[in-house]
Amino acid sequence: MTYYSCFDQNGNIIARCQTKEDINVLKKMGRPIEEIKEMKKEESVVCSLTGSPSDYNEDY
To answer: Are 35 and 6 in contact (CB under 8 A)?
Structure first.
């Protein structure tokens, strides 16, 4: 499973998403996503252990 980290223009992480569709929804909601990086396997394990990536998106 692939997870993505979304960053704002200052390089701060603002969301973690499981699919590109999730990213598109956040963009439509007005989130200032400037950069998207695919998470490494070892980073994405944390998402699958702690719950849904949307848990990091307070307004999603």
So the answer is: yes
